């Protein structure tokens, strides 16, 4: 039995300690907004927050997540109203296919929490998520818009 604090609720699941957090979230908890992309922490589709930091869940074994750590998925980011990054994404029509966007939004939200006024270079160096559709210019614009409109949420 593993206890996880996910989106403000302590949840118990039965899973092997070596199971990646991604699969526990998707399969045991039904939180399918966090996507599987590459399985080797390169693409970022699986990005969630652990204690506010962006983490790639596909390579994070459950054994390395402590019960007191707070996990936030894309489902929990809004917290009652859209997060400024989510609002900017909608306002600027950032996604194309959208598959990578939950991870991209989570990475952007973590960046803005750490750095509320990032430069273009800050964004390019910190947001390493891969978008197959190539909407990087819109991602950059979305992060800048969210920063102006209260990005940390």
Task: Summarize this structure briefly.
The protein has helices at residues 21-28, 74-77, 84-91, 101-114, 120-126, 136-148, and strands at 2-6, 9-13, 47-50, 53-56, 70-72. It is α+β, with helices and mostly antiparallel strands.
Q: Quick one: biggest sheet?
A: 5 strands, mixed
Domain count:
2
Question: How many β-strand stretches?
Answer: 5
Count every helix, treating DSSP H or I runs of 4 or more residues as helices.
6
Rounded mean pLDDT is 95
Q: What structural category arises from helix and sheet content? A: alpha+beta
Report helical residue fraction: 25-40%
User: What is the level 1 CATH name of the largest domain?
Assistant: Alpha Beta
Low-pLDDT stretches are none
**What's the SSE pattern?**
EEHEEEHHHHH
Specify the CATH architecture of the largest domain.
Roll
Give the CATH topology of the largest domain: Ubiquitin-like (UB roll)
User: What Rg is obtained from the alpha carbons, in whole angstroms?
Assistant: 15 Å
Give short descriptive properties of this protein.
153 residues; alpha+beta; Ubiquitin-like (UB roll); DNA polymerase, domain 1; 35% helix; metal ion binding; iron
Description of the molecule:
The protein is of the alpha+beta class. It folds into 2 domains: 2-75, Ubiquitin-like (UB roll), CATH 3.10.20; 84-148, [2Fe-2S]-binding domain (DNA polymerase, domain 1), CATH 1.10.150. It has helices spanning 21-28, 74-77, 84-91, 101-114, 120-126, 136-148, and strands at 2-6, 9-13, 47-50, 53-56, 70-72. Strands 2-1-5-3-4 form a 5-stranded mixed beta sheet, with helices on both faces. Helix 3 crosses helix 6. The longest helix is centred in the last third of the chain and has 14 residues, at 101-114. The mean pLDDT is 95.
